[in-house]
Structure prediction request, 1180 residues.
Amino acid sequence: MRETWHERFIDSPGVLKGAAREQTIVRVLDFHVGGNEFITMAGPCSVETEFQLMATANHVRRAGARILRGGAFKPRSSPYAFQGHGLEGLKMLARAREESGLAIVTEVMSEDDVPMVAEYADILQIGTRNMENYSLLEAAARSGRPILLKRGMAATIADWLRSAQLILNNGNPNVILCERGIRTFETATRNTFDVSAIALLKQISHLPVIADPSHAAGHRELVPVLARIAVASGADGLLVEVHPNPEKAWSDGEQSLDFAGFDAMMYDLEPWLELRGRELERREGDGALPMEAVG
Amino acid sequence: MRETWHERFIDSPGVLKGAAREQTIVRVLDFHVGGNEFITMAGPCSVETEFQLMATANHVRRAGARILRGGAFKPRSSPYAFQGHGLEGLKMLARAREESGLAIVTEVMSEDDVPMVAEYADILQIGTRNMENYSLLEAAARSGRPILLKRGMAATIADWLRSAQLILNNGNPNVILCERGIRTFETATRNTFDVSAIALLKQISHLPVIADPSHAAGHRELVPVLARIAVASGADGLLVEVHPNPEKAWSDGEQSLDFAGFDAMMYDLEPWLELRGRELERREGDGALPMEAVG
Amino acid sequence: MRETWHERFIDSPGVLKGAAREQTIVRVLDFHVGGNEFITMAGPCSVETEFQLMATANHVRRAGARILRGGAFKPRSSPYAFQGHGLEGLKMLARAREESGLAIVTEVMSEDDVPMVAEYADILQIGTRNMENYSLLEAAARSGRPILLKRGMAATIADWLRSAQLILNNGNPNVILCERGIRTFETATRNTFDVSAIALLKQISHLPVIADPSHAAGHRELVPVLARIAVASGADGLLVEVHPNPEKAWSDGEQSLDFAGFDAMMYDLEPWLELRGRELERREGDGALPMEAVG
Amino acid sequence: MRETWHERFIDSPGVLKGAAREQTIVRVLDFHVGGNEFITMAGPCSVETEFQLMATANHVRRAGARILRGGAFKPRSSPYAFQGHGLEGLKMLARAREESGLAIVTEVMSEDDVPMVAEYADILQIGTRNMENYSLLEAAARSGRPILLKRGMAATIADWLRSAQLILNNGNPNVILCERGIRTFETATRNTFDVSAIALLKQISHLPVIADPSHAAGHRELVPVLARIAVASGADGLLVEVHPNPEKAWSDGEQSLDFAGFDAMMYDLEPWLELRGRELERREGDGALPMEAVG
Prediction:
């Protein structure tokens, strides 16, 4: 099967594991994504107000997050929805970094905005709708910032890796893949969380892979269990939506955790993360959980 | 959201959790599916020979399985493929039970075969292609045997629960749901393992839910990690394909584990199952892992 | 491409066009499905009352239909919905045939019902949910009646042809394929009408293919235009839901045409059917519209 | 249902038919898209050489095409594939317009390229992968050129109309929608041609809608029959890939017609287009084929 899989991904040789190729470890501030640590990125869907952002940053940091997420530019599917604060939002994110010590990940939606967003953010997010916007991928790659590449709604794993390869081809090795669910016939969840894609990618690729349980589920009740599943899948971290008052969020409130919900999730993840850590130690920190050794 | 979900499943009130409704616990021989124990069902796709079946039964029992799976009637998508040994296969399964002490789960594909299959099997499996074969559901329900109801390839969770409800309506409360992946555009895996469906079902329904990582993945390399994911999802057990020599299996060899692979999987699952057990104890055995309490 | 396609359908050699193989023409009463005539099958989703059925039969016959459809056994997805009149419904259908001269197509859902349904119906319909119910396919095949085989919701064309092949293997060459839409992420229509499947099947297979615009659309406003599209696709006929009072239909009312709507559809189809007829004549009645000759 | 549909598309009021709103008719050179004429856009996937382009332009013009298609910038899914000639390709397209009198439609993939592409092209194409690239949509809209908006692979009709609305919101009313198939589980065709989407859009929207049978089918043998189906669906035109030597095309050769194939298609479409014309006349040129009146 390995051979079959490698043929399927033949357009993207640079992202596949090979004899000499080590695991990609992305340095961000004073920590790493893709190493042994499980990294939680948390924060609101949109940067709304100074208060909302600071309160969230301080809270999620205390609960164990390392990276603050928040949208300054929003790819809202409706042209009448809130479009984001733009530059002002980026400045708020930078102030939140100063105050909290968290790194910042935020989406860039336009090639022309890349220099501005790269000035303020530690990681540039390429959103689901832009996974195959090759001009944006190239511009973001050339900024030198690590790239968080979300999977497109109808993107196969092979498509996704081709977009990652394009970033590498533009001189940027620091790509973090993010599984956020694919679009299928099932509507009880907002998307269908393709956890097998994470498991498969950890076997064939050296790139870090994280999970976005918020967009996968679309309902906050499912977010904690999907986070636990992500830990078991071998993912390197989480991207989670948290809001001080989800009922009043300007976007995606239904899938955002409130502070108490985030605390409960982090508390309950602890034994699962400890187990993950023990397994990694046993494997001498090669980034793979034991199951991957079977193949 | 709870309300929304309940509306979505309004045709199937009997399978939903309610104030007074306790978790469904299905007694099989001397153990239970849907209680605190995590139950592994393992065995070959098809019953091929006495030797193949006995060797597998003895092996998986020693590794911790409680139930032997094996097809005597095969819903082979090609009319030229092996169709199964029929009654002779059922008798082999019964001898394997005697010898190994394992319970037997096997698929019934025709309403006319229900009495015969029910005579030999402890659990009747309704296959993916028959999830909405209402005549078969009714006949199987009335046999009094517990029913393992696999999800249809394009069945929504709501569709699936309607089929479960139909079994309840025919006087049989012992339904075990089995997630085995849905059909989507992604072809790197045989099906798309909808683990969110398991998580969601554990929140809204009192029925036991198990996972079939073999059909979900379609490649044996992914089976162990999907099994670990199933544990984290709150599933009540596994249905796994195991064969003494997968390369020579008459069907589904690519997704079958060999004995060593099965042993490795069971060994590596142990700490994850211990953790699951501790969490359940902490929750006083109500069948829900901690995360479910957030919603 | 032809080669590729033939490889894809290699399990079903008997349904593919070959050098010597002629178009399958299914004789029903005094007319044919799969010959040059475009056959319209129309009637209610469910047989409800004598009046409803007779009124519909007489109306659709005058408007040009040759076959009356109507369900005596209903595969209702909800166990609480109307399940059909059963034998009494079959008898009503037989009386409608006597009175109107129309042939009868009705669904059989259980292998045990095959002899009874075959006694009353001219064509046995295998429904979407049972396309891979191999026991039912075999029983229906052996009845000797022509089989209308609806496509499963998640069935590929290759899966569908395998089921057709199974019917042929059981001694029954009279299979009519019916495209009724597949399940996808799009919800504006009830299903996604895969008209390319009809076009492709007319190129590779000698079996007649008809279209069910009612289930494909799910909304009556789209039914006439999908019917016109079916004519252009090379389909051999239509299966359309018609009801005297769709607002009060016991099932599928939203997608049923009323009598005036059916008349308007048939009237507006006329020039398109005339054009289809001229094209067939030009091709000396080989069953293919001109476009198919390009390949 | 009308009400339901309108609710579904409530974010995009400007693209829906209303009491006073007339059909959008897009003027291009000396003809119109969205009026009574059926407009064929044809040409190679990629602009390869001067000879290839001129030969194709002259040929398709003589066969009845009004617009020349050809990619100067290619959104190739593999980063190793041919990326297009860029500016040189645009200049070749402009020379082909001068020589042939055809209008030019070509894809723009980057906001920064919009001014340059708009200088040479008569219609800017937004490709499938960029349907929700809102920055590009805005930049393209503000160029003042008509926009050909291809449907995203996993875009619902509602998503697609939101993108169209965004173009209108940026001051550009000249949007032409192009159905090119959606991504589903079926792999016998490259995409699943959602012809119901065309039919539905002609009922609810005043925007012109065309069909791309080449990408929908993925195999040239199906292109002519899908073109005929598009005529029956009420579409306003076609976008078809034509190449002097498809076997040697640098991209998409398998789905490109050669000159003889294009001639045959255009010849065989003639009676269907005549019929379409007569129906439109009968309806006094309101842009709707008769079937739409039933709803």
